[in-house]
């Protein structure tokens, strides 16, 4: 059995070629399986890719991917679980207390081409544009 994890790394543009080679050589992730996005940071691009982990295999994410975040997708919306939970909290400000996060419906059409993350303990919703 294998487990597939979708990751996003934020890479300086001048290090992009090195990073793509690293993914290919170390993890056999081909450039055709990698997607690039422009973000609000003009110096970096967001690189998304799937990492396949074999059963029993261990990977030190902090060492191998220090600038990576585990992400999820709904259409063209990209989010982290923490970002999604904070978004739900913000949408339901009047329902403080015990929220059933799984039962909350999100209108994903409002978040297409957006990146939803937590930055400095705050919700960050950033425009993104796929470039490759």
Summarize the structure.
The chain is of the alpha+beta class and 132 residues long. It is built from 3 helices and 9 strands, in the order βαββαβββαβββ.
Index terms:
single chain; 132 residues; alpha+beta; five-stranded antiparallel beta sheet; four-stranded mixed beta sheet; 3 helices; 37% strand
Please render the helix and strand layout as text:
Blueprint: E1 2-12, H1 16-27, E2 35-38, E3 44-54, H2 61-64, E4 68-70, E5 72-74, E6 77-79, H3 81-91, E7 114-119, E8 122-127, E9 129-130
Parallel strand pairs: 6-7
Antiparallel strand pairs: 1-3, 1-4, 2-3, 2-9, 5-6, 7-8
Describe this structure in words.
- The chain has 132 residues and is of the alpha+beta class.
- It has one domain (2-130).
- The protein is built from three helices and nine strands, in the order βαββαβββαβββ.
- β2 (35-38) and β3 (44-54) form a beta hairpin.
- The model has no long low-confidence stretch (mean pLDDT 90).
How many domains would you count in the coordinates?
1
What is the CA-based Rg, rounded?
A: 16 Å
Q: Which percent range describes the beta-strand content?
A: 35-45%
Query: Which parts are unreliable, with pLDDT below 50 for 5 consecutive residues or more?
Result: none
Helix content percent band? 10-25%
> What is the oligomer described by this structure?
single chain
SS-derived structural category: alpha+beta
- Mean of all residue-level pLDDT scores: 90
Q: Specify the overall morphology.
A: globular
Can you summarize the main beta sheet?
5 strands, antiparallel
* Separation of the first and last Cα atoms: 30 Å
Q: Helical segment tally? A: 3
Order of helices and strands: EHEEHEEEHEEE
Count of beta strands: 9
Strand line-up in the sheet with most strands: 4-1-3-2-9
């Amino acid at each position: 059995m294998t487990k597939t994890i979708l990751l996003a790394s934020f890479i300086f543009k001048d290090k992009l070629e090195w990073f793509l080679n690293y993914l290919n050589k170390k993890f056999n992730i081909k450039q055709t399986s990698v997607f690039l996005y422009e973000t609000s940071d003009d110096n970096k691009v967001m690189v998304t890719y799937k990492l396949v982990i074999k059963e029993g295999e261990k990977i030190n994410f902090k060492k191998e991917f220090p600038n990576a975040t585990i992400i999820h997708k709904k259409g063209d919306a990209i989010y982290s679980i923490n970002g999604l939970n904070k978004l739900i909290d913000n949408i339901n400000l009047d329902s403080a207390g015990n929220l059933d996060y799984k039962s909350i419906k999100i209108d994903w059409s409002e978040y297409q081409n957006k990146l939803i993350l937590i930055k400095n303990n705050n919700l960050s919703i950033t425009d993104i544009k796929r470039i490759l």
